[in-house]
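Bug #2210: token dump truncated for Adenylosuccinate synthetase?
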Amino acid sequence: MANVVVVGAQWGDEGKGKIVDWLSERADIVARFQGGHNAGHTLVIDGVVYKLSLLPSGIVRGGKLSVIGNGVVLDPWALLTEIDKLAGQGVTITPDNLLIAENTPLILPVHGELDRARESQNSVAKIGTTGRGIGPAYEDKVGRRTIRVADLADEATLDTRIGRLLTHHNALRAGLGLAPIDTAALKAQLLEVAPKILPFAKPVWKVLTEARRAGKRILFEGAQGSLLDVDFGTYPYVTSSNTLAGMAATGTGLGPTSIDFVLGIVKAYTTRVGEGPFPTELFDADGDRLGTRGHEFGTVTGRKRRCGWFDAVLVRQTCATSGVSGIALTKLDVLDGFKTLKICTGYMLDGEKLDYLPTAANLQARVTPVYEELEGWSESTAGARSWADLPGAAIKYVRRIEELIQCPVALLSTSPERDDTILVTDPFAD
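Reproduced locally. Full output below:
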């Protein structure tokens, strides 16, 4: 059976939540493979809005097994808060429908404190983090001093892990003028949360391997977007994990041969939250209109998103680095009523035309977009469920995007409602 990876192909906020929810109806398992609670997905189901930060989008669908993979950094207190919030909306979450990989690293209060202290003291080049400790938690993971879910089950191991962790962090905190961490208090916090988290802990790699062998369909769900990838994004204005499709394999414990289709989620225009380069950003009435009509505010932070025209150069690049099989184009209806639309087809840099975004930060900041203008449409595309429902100019816009990014449209989304979706290619087709 086909297994599908869903990744954001821009800077995040492309509408992955709706698409994952739409696909999850046909999946048996939905697995989150990277990121933390700094990213969010908004689902609209039968008029009810669900906001998720850590939980896989499939959790709101009864009977779907949801998995948090080892590629995620997990704030256990944030997870429990999210579970309680969804319970208030009638969603029951138990170890029967949610699994957490035993080797998942934890985000601790010390990580959030360090994150916020660094950002507040860095007046030269702020990264624009959410201050939730994601970066410091990933640092501890690669520094081999993290506390993982499995460590919560053994007090002696926990003592060793805490000692190693705080040797590092207390030295950092001294340099930032912060008081040292109370070792006993941190241990007490972890021992208190342990019995609430451990029932969900499982060898996820084994569960998923057996499910795949049994012919189960697995939907791998990414957070953020490809342009925030720590290696291939607009560094250093990126997240601290790999957001590309290849992370689905290492972030859950399945090999790359388990991936059959990569679906890149792409907004019909471009947005970005936080700092960093944004070649097609608009500072005029068109940018304001995109933000207002698209309700462009972050699911987790509420921060206003920066808005701009569609950048085909960047999407073509991310389709290549994630090996995208087809894209899901979202929020086409936001463009309704524009007399003229623009698509970035290249960049100019010191008199030279480029067909990719250069790696060096100073060059990224200096590129200027080369635009192609297309005719807009006055008719509404909101709620369209077939090509016949779309204006001719809207179809031309979609087809031109396909040509420029060198990747076909597999799905077309025309509203936040899950059924307002035009299916072109079924990602789960065997």
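Output looks complete on our side. The chain has three domains: 4-103+200-258, 109-197, 266-423. Marking as cannot-reproduce; reopen if the truncation happens again.
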